[in-house]
Automatic annotation (TrEMBL):
Record Gene3D superfamilies: Oxidoreductase, molybdopterin-binding domain
Family from the record: Belongs to the MsrP family.
Alphabetized GO MF terms: metal ion binding; molybdopterin cofactor binding; oxidoreductase activity, acting on a sulfur group of donors, quinone or similar compound as acceptor
Subunit organization: Heterodimer of a catalytic subunit (MsrP) and a heme-binding subunit (MsrQ).
PTM characteristics: Predicted to be exported by the Tat system. The position of the signal peptide cleavage has not been experimentally proven.
Keywords: Metal-binding, Molybdenum, Oxidoreductase, Signal
UniProt name for this protein: Protein-methionine-sulfoxide reductase catalytic subunit MsrP
E.C. designation(s): 1.8.5.-
One biological process term in Gene Ontology: protein repair
Superkingdom in the source lineage: Bacteria
Functional note: Part of the MsrPQ system that repairs oxidized periplasmic proteins containing methionine sulfoxide residues (Met-O), using respiratory chain electrons. Thus protects these proteins from oxidative-stress damage caused by reactive species of oxygen and chlorine generated by the host defense mechanisms. MsrPQ is essential for the maintenance of envelope integrity under bleach stress, rescuing a wide series of structurally unrelated periplasmic proteins from methionine oxidation.
Keyword Oxidoreductase attached: yes
Gene: msrP
Cofactor: Mo-molybdopterin
Amino acid sequence: MFVHRRKGWEIRESEATPEHLFFARRSLLKGGAAAAAASWLAAPAFAADDPADALYPAKRNEIFKLDRAVTPEEINSHYNNFYEFGSTKDIFDAAQSLKTRPWTIKIDGLVEKPFDIGIDDLIKSMPLEERLYRHRCVEAWAMAAPWTGFPLRALVEAAKPLSAAKYVRMETFLDRAMAPGQRQAWYPWPYVEGLTMAEAANDLSFLVTGAYGKPLGKSFGAPLRLATPWKYGFKSIKSITRISFVAERPKTFWESLQASEYGFWANVNPAVPHPRWSQASEEVLGTQERRPTQIFNGYGEFVAGLYVGLEKERLFV
Ligand SMILES: Nc1nc2c(c(=O)[nH]1)N[C@H]1C(S)=C(S)[C@@H](COP(=O)(O)O)O[C@H]1N2
Ligand SMILES: [Mo]
């Protein structure tokens, strides 16, 4: 039972504002505070000894177009939500303690035969491609990233789910020694997310193993994270260790904390404000720009059909 729950996004306005971190850093650089800046720039945003290194960069799938520039890697990899490593955006250094090998993913639940698979065997067995995707956090900041990975659908097919499976439930690792954030007992660890089977089979649902033409950096949720770019970013679960096929809608991490603000569907919609702020526009990370938010984050042509007949659901929370 908790009296004060520090809800994920319930951070002070000064902490929540992208400029606060990003532009403060940039002025550090400009001001010649080289030592402070150097550690930030020098640390590689990926594991150089990653066994899957040779598979990158993968061929880009040109179907997925951006309406904006790709966010520079240095900005994207240093402005993160990854509560396992802290509740600010500044988790890059802490996330370096994430140990990504060996890494086993458990596939279980309503499938023909549950199995475990090592991340490198999984990556080798899947059709890797690069996609340029937008990403829209519920906190009203946005970026764009070149993710490498494979369609979630390919893994669903390999898992051979039974017809009783209605949802895909995904879970992050649980290791309090490795991840200091997980020692904060008021969060319902491990992080859990979920999609309907139809959402998981949609072309856009993408399991990410790399970014910026390299194996996925730790702050991005190495070695395996989800990208569902028509949904708020909290759906894009990081550092996945378990994928279960289930009959019941899974209770997700943020939903457990505050269901009225962070629901299961979480589709992006400028017309439906978050209970505590507007979703009409978004801050484009790395720029001075605010842009109007687009319904389904601009991906309606791919996903609007998923929600026909579900209009009574809280689709946009
Ligand atoms: N395991 C885990 N996954 C997570 C989160 C988290 O804290 N832990 N944060 C989510 C949120 S709120 C967002 S916006 C994205 C952030 O991804 P990025 O840091 O690569 O931009 O990851 C999502 N996945
Ligand atoms: Mo987010």
